[in-house]
Input
Amino acid sequence: MRRILDACVSLMETGEEPTMRSAAKAAGIAERTVYRHFDSLETLVTAVRDHCAARITVPLPETAADLDRYVKALFDAFEANRELVVTLVGLAPRRQDFEQSRAENLRAMRQLIDGSFPDAPRAARQAAADTLRTLASGSAWVYLRVSCGLPNSRVIQSTRWLMSTAFTALDGSVPDRVSEPAD
Output
């Protein structure tokens, strides 16, 4: 089964969305073998997504104090799997199954920020969590690392700087300029 999943990742890294037939061909096996492991293309795609996530997912820490190490570990994982991350970032807007993980990631970041800065205004906590979740994402990493050509160490440094700025604001040493959203 791993052979099939690895073949699908290779296909994705070249810009091709896997099909049962292309997965079999890339893995050097018969198409019926793919069907023995995966009863549908959707089952295969879900397994491939989970296989990819295992290579690049770093668990979100429980407190803001540990976000510094989290960003380094996450971006180092992205660097080690660069082509895969670029491919997944390109696929994400077209795949509904990515929506759930994006929503879960945002919810987890909001809980982390709420727990770490309970006295900060609600609107400021939400703005910080939304911004930090965006920064600690494959999309932001691809933009800074690939599109802008920054070295990974600089992407980590820039992300840490903005996190530190957000934490300073949440601690109350910066005037709160964030109001409750109108919607």
About this structure: The CA atoms of residues 55 and 101 lie 15 Å apart. The radius of gyration is 19 Å. The chain has two domains: 1-56, 58-177.
